[in-house]
Amino acid sequence: MRRRTRVGEALATIRRRGCLSVVLVFLLAACSTDSPSVLSPEGESARRIDRLWWLMLWISLAVLAVVLGLMVAAIVRRGRRDVEVDRTTPPWGDPFIVIAGVAVPALILIAVFVVSLRDLDAITEQGDASLTIDVIGHVWWWEVRYPGGAVTANEIHIPTGETVRFRLTSDDVIHSFWVPELAPKIDMIDGRTNVLDVRTDVPGTYRGQCAEFCGLQHANMAFHVIAESRDEFDAWLQNEAEPAESDTETASGLDVFLSSSCVGCHTIRGTDATGTLGPDLTHMASRLTLAAGTIPNSREDLARWIEDPQSIKPGNVMPPTELSEADLDALLDYLETLD
Ligand code: CUA
């Protein structure tokens, strides 16, 4: 008996702590400012998902309250021994069970299904897009191609106030493109192109994340969507489409690039570097992060990344590059001019 009580106490503690940790996780998620949340929507599609989420939450809470109320009423009633229970039921069943247990849940589920279908339709069909961007998933980074020849990585600029169409595919395993504040997640599958329309009126930098487990560095497969005015976007795109500028002062850095293993995997438009395994580096200095959101795009981090990328993002396909201190400095000087 005593042992049973102890087991009961332990279970109660686990349950109590379990509930506490769940509450803590929710509180932390709500307080965290740099983690994107589907509950702070800034895009048209995300707003619909947010409204649907709240509708489902309120319906669930109402159902929970009614069920708990009935349970309490039943317990209280059972405690009163003088209550006479009428056990005669009509041939089609107890009216209470049929109405509250079958008809009402069916009506609620059908209503939510209809609202979901309406939202699904609105999210999929957003009319003509002013811009189409191709995004290709790789282990573990994002290739981004614009009309007109601009190619970038892990950073997607879009104009505000316009519908932008993303054509999404993968070069290897299945990834999932997700910018919680702007749009629903959508799979990226090798050999198939999925389409996602995105529209936001709010300028800003929105963090995106791969949402489908795709291997060792799935968690380090992030990107940013930068929404800006049409004018800012046009200026950015024009610069991005241009080849890298050659600079006599950093020519030795380009020589280091072309004579090391870098050239086998990376393209720098306007030079002899035309590798396609890794990100296009033509304007890499203008990007916010390196290695798909893993480290900031600073000189020190870039140096660490070139020398030993496996210590930063184990399992990624970039090999270490052994360079003398002078060569590394020259290479960094050159890469920093690529904006
Ligand atoms: Cu790509 Cu997970």
**What is the count of structural domains?**
4
What proportion of the residues is helical, as a percent range? 40-55%
Which strand order does the major sheet show?
3-2-1-5-8
CATH superfamily annotation of the largest domain:
Cupredoxins -  blue copper proteins
User: How many distinct beta strands?
Assistant: 12
Query: Beta-strand level of the residues, as a percent range?
Result: 15-25%
Query: Which stretches are poorly predicted, pLDDT < 50 over at least 5 residues?
Result: 1-7
Provide the CATH topology of the largest domain.
Immunoglobulin-like
Series of H and E elements? HHHEEEEEEEEEEHHEEHHH
Shape: elongated
Ligands in the structure?
A: dinuclear copper ion
> How many helices in DSSP terms?
8
Strand-pairing-aware structural class: alpha+beta
Characterize the structure shown:
By secondary structure, the chain is of the alpha+beta class. It folds into four domains: 2-31, no CATH class; 44-124, no CATH class; 131-241, Immunoglobulin-like (Sandwich); 248-335, Cupredoxins -  blue copper proteins (Immunoglobulin-like). 42% of the residues lie in helices and 17% in strands. The strands form three sheets. The protein has a five-stranded mixed sheet, with no helix packed on it. A hairpin with a 2-residue loop joins strand 1 and strand 2 (141-145). It is elongated, with a radius of gyration of 28 Å. The model is unreliable at 1-7 (pLDDT under 50). Bound molecules: dinuclear copper ion. Dinuclear copper ion binds next to loops.
